[in-house]
Amino acid sequence: xxxxxxxxxxxxxxxxxxxxxxxxxxxxxxxxxxxxxxxxxxxxxxxxxxxxxxxxxxxxxxxxxxxxxxxxxxxxxxxxxxxxxxxxxxxxxxxxxxxxxxxxxxxxxxxxxxxxxxxxxxxxxxxxxxxxxxxxxxxxxxxxxxxxxxxxxxxxxxxxxxxxxxxxxxxxxxxxxxxxxxxxxxxxxxxxxxxxxxxxxxxxxxxxxxxxxxxxxxxxxxxxxxxxxxxxxxxxxxxxxxxxxxxxxxxxxxxxxxxxxxxxxxxxxxxxxxxxxxxxxxxxxxxxxxxxxxxxxxxxxxxxxxxxxxxxxxxxxxxxxxxxxxxxxxxxxxxxxxxxxxxxxxxxxxxxxxxxxxxxxxxxxxxxxxxxxxxxxxxxxxxxxxxxxxxxxxxxxxxxxxxxxxxxxxxxxxxxxxxxxxxxxxxxxxxxxxxxxxxxxxxxxxxxxxxxxxxxxxxxxxxxxxxxxxxxxxxxxxxxxxxxxxxxxxxxxxxxxxxxxxxxxxxxxxxxxxxxxxxxxxxxxxxxxxxxxxxxxxxxxxxxxxxxxxxxxxxx
Amino acid sequence: xxxxxxxxxxxxxxxxxxxxxxxxxxxxxxxxxxxxxxxxxxxxxxxxxxxxxxxxxxxxxxxxxxxxxxxxxxxxxxxxxxxxxxxxxxxxxxxxxxxxxxxxxxxxxxxxxxxxxxxxxxxxxxxxxxxxxxxxxxxxxxxxxxxxxxxxxxxxxxxxxxxxxxxxxxxxxxxxxxxxxxxxxxxxxxxxxxxxxxxxxxxxxxxxxxxxxxxxxxxxxxxxxxxxxxxxxxxxxxxxxxxxxxxxx
Lengths: 556, 249
Description:
The structure holds two protein chains of two kinds. Chain A is of the alpha/beta class. Chain A has helices spanning about 5-20, 25-35, 120-135, 145-155, 170, 175-180, 210-220, 240-245, 255-270, 285-290, 295-305, 320-330, 435-445, 450-465, 485-490, 540, and strands at about 50-55, 65-70, 75-80, 110-115, 115, 135-140, 160-165, 185-190, 195-200, 230-235, 250, 310-315, 340, 350, 360-365, 380-385, 395-400, 405-410, 420-425, 470, 475, 495. In chain A, the strands form five sheets. Chain A has an eight-stranded mixed β-sheet. A five-stranded antiparallel β-sheet of chain A has the order 18-19-22-20-21. Chain B is of the alpha+beta class. Classes of the chains: A alpha/beta, B alpha+beta. Chains A and B meet through helix 2, strand 3, helix 7, helix 8 and helix 16 of A and helix 1, strand 2, strand 3 and helix 5 of B.
């Protein structure tokens, strides 16, 4: 039989058509698809022993307790520690993705001067030269750490100045420092005993202070109840997360917090609603009503509501002095459920937002929020783990990232009682890094290192015999065998907890009602986040959902 | 005895912080891809913001975490899957998705009344080195398949292994806590075995003010919600009524 060209074409077409009704092409397509879904270069999780280590988050000064799941020596997940006395098992949303931050594309991996590559030796030489030529200002964003004492000692020994950048929660306490003489770093809010909290725009349920402390308290004592044990009154111009969940939301005009606090204090004093006394605000009630957009009667009613359940305390979102004065009038300063003084002495710090004059150089620790720019023309040596974009011709010096250095965790800014914890170095840095404290110690070897300072602080705690150590079980320090044992327990995730705050140990004298103050609008994200980048998974919140607004100021 | 794992989410306690979303993504090795958007991203746990539609002081807002509801009855995704890539695990009640069987037809996404399924458009990728941060208990996500919440099945496996090592047949529920439940800073999510009447989750599932989304269609979801707000409960039958979220496609 002769096979013609036509037969061949018919056979080919028939075969092609017939194949379509068999599973062969579809199976091949499926197999190709599955094969291409599993390219060998698609990243797969590392294999290795899995262990959980206890530490603390050091990305902001709140120091939440953190369980770190490690696989093959790398952190692969984090969670809160439920036994932590302040954070109580909670972390902020950013904390849950923090273990990926060390590999962020914007990780600073080499020393830079402006846009030019440089080296550690050049940076050291330049800084040593600057120190010999004039005073140096050292700026810290997380005061109270062992590393902070290195920064502070260097500034003192080299005719320099030590300044701090503090978050809005700590700034809100600074007014009491001026009136009482007690450093703001020794003050906190005794929220656990308060029955009414009037928040003037403070994002209590959205990252204020240690995230777990207030959210847990709210969930236990206020959430979903028509007549809660803890009444939260949110004074805010917009329906924020906190306003939406508060017992009562008082909408007022933007920036009118000062006027409302003045109006409330006037009512409290005129109607003798509060036990404490204070100066009468100059602002008339009618003027307060005009400025806030509320009625006079609404302000009166709010003032009366505030004192129905006491202790009551007012919380400002920033350093609004009228809110602080309102607390004085309420009698909430130095009393249970109000602003309290912690049991241990603390230092007063100079804030870094004032202009810096006659400095030859400014050294900025990596704990200082990236948005901070010193008001100075001096040469800037900035330590950072992530690069938010070059600023002027500053030196950029790569510092340890998340869990890459041993550090201690002092008391959180708003806490009513002292805590002390240690966050060990769990991860190796992917490049040569140095913290500001290590850098200064290399220039002046007479300085005590952060490690030695942590060691001596543990010895001090042991000698003090006060407080308890909270780990898997609670142990009074007095029952511990040695300082080494204390340090060992702290390194394994235990937290030292000091004694209850001393009520009556804080007295504020306000001679005149404060002058006008304009409140800043609170940001949608935590303002204490120091890094210029967010964890990559944060995009789930603002790009892959509409849960939050995209952070405009950050380079995520 | 077979378990029926589920949860009760107290919406009056949800502040919409988003911790559950990030903890879920980190636990399940979900990447954050630059090209992903609200329509194309992978968010097995998605917190939606809803309101009562009011203006000014009359406005009220709430947050509703939406994930796979693990429907018990006539599970829509199981019924439409041509590949048998979805099944309800008889031992746990978890609706399981098997990516190796999935051909990516997305019938299940269309069938899911809760919009809780996501198509994985891209190969997973991370910046150099970040693959070291992947959870070893979970494979990296496959392109071209449908994904959804599996109640952190890797954690269930770990709990089962631990129980087996101790010579037990039943797991200790304290060992099996999904990532979203663990992450919630207000403790708004109660997770447990709904088949066990003594389990707190089972008790809460039958408490007043508890409801399920689209209960009228009879799919018997194992995710319950709870709220004292009448307008929030009213949303249960029309959850997209005033939700501000974009629907995933």
